[in-house]
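Convert to structure. Protein one:
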Amino acid sequence: MSFALAVVQPARCYQRMDGRPAVNCTQLPRRARRLLWPGIFFVVVGAVLILYASTMPVFTEAGAPNRVQDELRGELDEIYTQAQTAQIDDGRFDQLTQEWYARMDAYETPHKSLFDLGVGLLALGAGLVASFQFVRCYHQNERYRDVGFFLRIWFWLWAIQIPFSFLYFSVKILRNDSPGWSDSIAIPIFNGWVFTIVGWAVTRMILRRLLRRRVLVAPPQLNLRPQSLRAWGRTIFVSFWICLLALCVVGAVPEGDFGTVFPCMVAGVLLCLVLIAPEAVQMSEDGSENS
């Protein structure tokens, strides 16, 4: 969190003779470039890993998934036959699934781990570059500091998870990450879409509440000293939210979950701006003092 706050904090701000800020107060802080170069680095490394993984097969034997599944087909058919007269033995069914995974481990190459890590690093780099672009526009374009536009960006961060979740699970199906008798791709995709819709609606209401009586200004005012118990609660809540997003990124990068890494990276920067947004009353009082 300290890294993100260091990025969005203001650059040197000069005052004019009348006490009003000079034009370069809205220029992009040099610290924001800390997002750009690591982002480009991760994009390049991720692309290299993806290309390298594409040069090797997924399994040492091309027909290994089908062959292992055929070997277990007899016991699987027996389970389904018993299910016609009684309930399926979930314990036996799960044991058969675990046996399939254990056998497939002997045939897998580093393709999956390298490809997933490459996609994760690519998403991480793309998130850093997108965050740099947003911070740049935030400082130079007043439109990006409008609460309505801010919430529209938040909506799209949730919306892009829907197509990326479809691609994520489609890749896993195509490379036989699970046995043919396991749950279909429709179930996790549907659950993910429901979570996306509900998550967007809930977090949007929370975000509007957090921005109530707050002003998104450029340059941001880095002031993490709450003056009241309510302000302390707001600071702790948003800080915990940012840390939660960071944990999601750390867990999703090795899995190659682009739809989680990219939105969480950008959302973390947005929440940093929400965290340090000053109160509207405080801004008006400061303005009257300077005039």
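Protein two, convert as well:
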Amino acid sequence: MEISSSRYCDGRRIIIGHPDRQHSHHLASGLFKANLLYKYFCGQFNQHQVAAFPAWLIQLFPKAIIRNAVPFLGESIHKALPFGAAINLISRRSPLSLLKLWGEWAGFSIFDTQLASMIELMSPDVVIAYEMSAFKTFKAAKKKNIVCILDAAACHYRLQDERLNITKSEADSMPARLIRARKDIEVSLADKIICPSRLSADSYLAAGVPENKIVVNTLGVDSAVFEAASRIFREGTPRFVFIANSAFVKGADFVSAAIADLRKHNIPAIIDVVGAVRLDVVSSGSYPDSKSWVPSARSSGSGFEQGRLPFASITFRIFRHGGS
């Protein structure tokens, strides 16, 4: 399916809608610079809005709201729809997995309803939406012959369920069934599905999605950021920096395999993890040699970080430790 540029005669006819943020703000910024972005709806406030909040209010907000503020693209472009994101955020803090699922379903469904109403009012040429929040949006778009693009930020849920060891009782719960039903309908309604990796694309193909629907647009890295560090001659213990949650879908198994191979050759290595260490998943033996490298990372003192960090802080730690 070709999307002709002639459809964008006024230059700003694409709508993006994300219930939280993920990498949608990068896409929005790129389309804005290309003069193709009509509206950007998401669950986060923009940087100008956050800066205008009184200090006492900022102190009450979860740090994620401040940290995840999206770039300011103009008053007429960005609109925050935070209610669904707030429900999802609150439910994620519950120790009950069932309540987390209900909160996820409710939060994303609310945003989807809001976005669908915007599509009906504005009638763009293209709408780019995200899983669990594109069901009503794509249905509204189809009535107006609007191109529907599903930006798949992860893998198909079947692969996720398999790799994350989802229990049968959890998978068979009412909210889980509702969530998966929404995802299936969204995939069927999408004209194109953008996958961030070959792994992601293969997971959709394995689930029976037609190949002509899938586009692979890999997430890139600005190598210039690390250019200075790459010129430094290093001696001593190799150090890996893994910037993600240590889960299979993030490629933690590749890092684990590399460290295991080095150890076979009597070469010790240290790993810096910038992100949450999923010890519950790792300890189940999902990764090769996982039980040995994760505890060593945890005990390596300054060589280990856990939690979300701004990009500037990540690069600082890489340069400070001489990460390779």
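The radius of gyration is 21 Å. The longest helix spans residues 97-122.
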